[in-house]
Amino acid sequence: MASRNQNRPPRSPATRKELGDENPLDKRRRLGAAGRGVGPTATGQTRRALSAVNNGQGATAAANSEVVNAEECHEFTKEEVEAILNERPKAKKFDLKAKYEHAVEHNKRLKLCVKWFQQCDENHVLDKEKLTNSLESAEKKCIDSELEKKNKEEELNAVISELRDNNASLEEKLSKEVSEKLDAINRHRSEIEARATAEKSVATLTEEVQKAQQDIAAANERATSLDNTHKRLQEYILSLQQYNSKLITDLETVRESLKRVEKEKLTIVENLSTLRGHCSSLQEQLTLSRASQDDAVNQKEALVNEVRCLRGELQQVRDDRESQVSKVQALSAEIEKFKESAGRSFEELDNLTMRSKSLEETCSSQREQIRILELQLAAANEKLKMADLSASETRVGYLEQKRIIQDLQDRLADMEHKLLEGENLRKRLHNTILELKGNIRVFCRVRPLLPDDGAAEGVVVSYPTSMESLGRGIDLIQNGQKYPFTFDKVFNPEASQQDVFVEISQLVQSALDGYKVCIFAYGQTGSGKTYTMMGRPEAPEQKGLIPRSLEQIFQISQSLQAQGWKYKMQAILFYVILISTCYVG
Ligand SMILES: Nc1ncnc2c1ncn2[C@@H]1O[C@H](COP(=O)(O)OP(=O)(O)OP(=O)(O)O)[C@@H](O)[C@H]1O
Description:
The chain is mostly helical. 72% of the residues lie in helices and 5% in strands.
């Protein structure tokens, strides 16, 4: 059977109050312990839902007795009461039996409802009695507590008067203590200052401590980083070893680029020499133009002197002419006088006319001379102008040439600088490669079998073909056991003198770059040391390392001399120590 309370929607307390049918259970809760034991729950009965009230129909007769017990304990809500009151028979109009049954059922429920109301009323009466009892006891308690309160008030007044006395004495004490406190404050201030200085010193000390701690931490970090770098270096060494083998392959490409660089260098050197030739020709031109300029200057000076002389002569001639003209004027005045005096003597007149004619002739010749001199002066001036023009032209040309020479000298210096830089870069790269390859390198050369060696008894030497030791490893086989060896390079019997020299030539280049280099051969008697170092001079392709190195040294030193390098070679003493197994050069 489903619980009714579960199906019924919850009712708010406000609705109950509106209805005036406050739930007795709520009421009991309000009253607390006083309300307990009153009402149907006090008997321990459980309150169950009244299914007959809700359903109205379909309740079986067998269950009715049980339902009635439960119905006696049921609590009615306002809606339920209204539902019961408003309930109308649902049977058909003339179904009297059904109507009757419904009326019986309805009547039963109404009775239950009335019963429940009566019970509630009884409960309310009981509650009221309880409440009046408790009110009386509470009033008694209140009177007792008021009496107690009065007693306590009297006690408290006595205590207050005592406290006031105490307060006055305490105020006196307080004033004393205030003065003491001021002293204490002053002392405290001085202590604070002292403390501040102490704190400062503590702060500096803590800073120092922190610094020291930081230093320690940094040292620890450095130690760990050093450990790490040590590990990394070990790893790096391993990687370098791998890288070294890779470099050997890269070396070929680098060598090619080196050759290209050297070719470029040669072209630069050629350009440099042509530029130098051009520069020298320009300098010659410059000296020639300087000489021509000097000539022009000398010519100009001579012409200036000549013009000065001619000007002097012209001035003199002009003076002469003026004196002659003044004389002619005087003579003509005399003639006039003579004519006026009416011909004193005709002879004198003739003489005078003769003299006058000759004077006029000299005058005209002098005029001619003056004209010629003026023409000469104009020509000399023209020449002077021309000389000035040519001098200024030569000066301009000279300046132009000087500028070109300066340009060329700058370019030359630039080229030389670039060449020097390129050479230094090449040196550094070359020697870095050599350092990467290893400062100490050991090569192994296996000579071919000679007729004197006799027939070979099986294979005693083999060359591993693995990538790791290709061209670097050699296996010696003795009594069926293999002994592997690894070198920087292994030359097999087919390797030519040139092949060996290719490896050595880089060291010779290093020696020319100013690094100290030592090459020596070591091996058993008859193993081919002399052949490798000296070779057979009669056959050019079988020349050894020493003649090839010397050739390289002279060749490169000559080519580098053009770049301004100076090599000083001294044959101090070339030791060739052949101590049966060792060859030191
Ligand atoms: N790579 C080679 N190719 C051809 N012949 C060789 C080669 N190496 C050495 N020989 C020959 O082997 C012989 C011995 O060589 P070599 O005299 O150079 O040996 P060595 O080590 O200088 O001996 P020792 O220590 O006694 O002077 C010579 O006849 C030489 O021509």
